[in-house]
Design brief:
The chain has 173 residues and is mainly alpha-helical. The protein is built from 8 helices and 2 strands. Strands 1-2 form a two-stranded antiparallel sheet. Helix 1 runs antiparallel to helix 8 and helix 2 packs across helix 8. It is globular and about 50 Å long.
């Protein structure tokens, strides 16, 4: 066997892919499974086991349709995909919008939750989403309520935290 799927990646290759590739490259079913396993990595022997009666869904904390409710770091409204097609290469707002679009597909911006809570969150602002997070019992989501803001920096920081859990959940032997 010689395909990529039969080789377990080195930690360096795993880290690089985790940090740079869109998480959805795994596909939805694998992504849900990965986040369930990551959630388990947050549990300790002192906690009660969680058993999902229904399959959780993937939630984008920074929503895929972010432009209306999520201003850029400088407070300006970001550019949607149509506007980005006509933006100049050196336009700082376009650059920030591209960076945000890349960040929203990274592991640090994703989590799992039940469909009802996921649907309630939709494209809401962070302050609204943060309030709704009080309804989640999943350990992987507990620290999210402590974040005053949710932006590219917070996504990168959470991505590194999840990466540490992933490396312990799936060690290369």
């Amino acid at each position: 066997q010689s395909g990529d799927s039969v080789e377990w990646p080195t930690d360096a290759a795993f880290k690089e892919a985790w940090r740079s590739r869109p998480a959805y490259d795994l596909g939805n079913a694998k992504l849900v499974h990965a986040f369930i396993r990551l959630n388990d990595a947050y549990c300790t022997t002192k906690g009660e086991p969680l058993i999902f009666e229904k399959q959780p869904t993937i939630e984008h904390l920074l929503p895929q349709q972010w432009v209306e409710n999520w201003p850029l770091a400088d407070g300006q409204k970001g550019l949607n995909f149509g506007d980005l097609l006509f933006a100049e290469d050196d336009d700082p707002k376009a650059k920030a919008s591209y960076e945000r679009n890349a960040a929203l597909q990274r592991f640090g911006n994703l989590t799992i939750m039940m469909q009802e809570l996921n649907s309630a969150q939709s494209n809401s602002s962070w302050s609204e989403k943060r309030q709704l997070l009080k309804h989640t019992l999943l350990p992987i989501n507990q620290d999210l309520r402590d974040s005053e803001s949710w932006d590219e920096s917070a996504i990168a920081t959470r991505g590194e935290e999840l990466l540490a859990h992933a490396l312990s959940a799936w060690p290369r032997r």
